[in-house]
Amino acid sequence: MLFVTKRPMKRLMHRLMDRRALLAAPLALALPARAQGLSARDRADVARIEAYLNALTTLRARFLQIAQNGAAAEGTAWIWRPGRMRFEYDPPDPLLLVADAGQFLMYDRELRAPTTLLVSQTPLGILLRREVRLSGDVTVAGLDRSGGFLRITVFRTSEPSEGRLTLVFDPEPLALRQWAVRDPQGRETRVTLSRIETGLRFPAGLFQFNDPRFFEPGGFGAPQGSGN
């Protein structure tokens, strides 16, 4: 079992936020309407998004992350709902991010330094729930339909100052294309997906970082992405 202290957690968030920035204007976020002002159309779209996410089991894609300061990183992402996610950055970036069994791991291959925190403490934890329900303990801050995309912004109801997650979809047919995370300091991280494949089978070892073999040479902690 891996443990985390306040200092590594701050380092984790610093490294995550330092690699991203705003995307081009067509995907820029408009200020969303407040949740209590959602229209009937908005509520219908919320229901569509819930149904889409709950039907999503596995996804593999290339990703581009761009930071508030303009720094960019690319890599391969795997999502296996519920509960599992892996973000593997292309060289020379040594960072590996993995979610499994309620924990979120950042592993620096150069430093051989693992850091963990609870998935529930991260905005992306909403995506990995067994049942995605965008009400109750999740508040919808609003929806936006500009630029040919459907965007929904949410936050944990009990932690409104923790940060916000915006999901960006192609509206017809509904398909996840991007997300943005805004931290409590207002810094925004955007992740854009491309070459998306769904319904695949993944080896469970891709995500099982509490298995000591994960970090052995040639184990699943080693690079797995194609880089293409």
Helix and strand topology:
Blueprint: H1 6-18, H2 40-55, E1 58-66, E2 72-80, E3 84-89, E4 95-100, E5 103-108, E6 113-118, E7 138-144, E8 150-156, E9 164-171, E10 174-182, E11 188-198
How would you describe this structure in keywords?
228 residues; mainly beta; outer membrane lipoprotein receptor (LolB), chain A; 11-stranded antiparallel beta sheet; 13% helix; disordered N terminus
Give an account of the 3D structure.
This protein has helices at residues 6-18, 40-55; strands at residues 58-66, 72-80, 84-89, 95-100, 103-108, 113-118, 138-144, 150-156, 164-171, 174-182, 188-198. By secondary structure, the protein is mainly beta. It has an eleven-stranded antiparallel sheet. A hairpin with a 5-residue loop joins β10 (174-182) and β11 (188-198). The protein is globular and about 55 Å long. The two termini are 33 Å apart. Residues 1-13 and 16-34 have low confidence and may be disordered.
Summarize the model shown:
The chain is built from two helices and eleven strands; from the N terminus they run ααβββββββββββ.
Q: What's the CATH H-level homologous superfamily?
A: Lipoprotein localisation LolA/LolB/LppX
Sheet with the most strands, sense and barrel status: 11 strands, antiparallel
Count of DSSP-assigned helices = 2
Instruction: Write the element-wise H/E pattern from the N-terminal end onward.
Output: HHEEEEEEEEEEE
Low-confidence stretches: 1-13, 16-34
CATH class: Mainly Beta
Evaluate the radius of gyration.
17 Å
Strand arrangement within the widest β-sheet reads 6-5-4-3-2-1-11-10-9-8-7
Number of strands: 11
The chain-level structural class is mainly beta
As for the CATH topology, it is outer membrane lipoprotein receptor (LolB), chain A
DSSP strand (E) fraction? 35-45%
Mean pLDDT over all positions? 82
Distance between the termini: 33 Å
Level-2 CATH architecture? Clam
The rough form would be described as globular
Give the oligomeric state of the chains in this entry, treating copies of one chain as homo and distinct chains as hetero: single chain
Overall tally of structural domains? 1
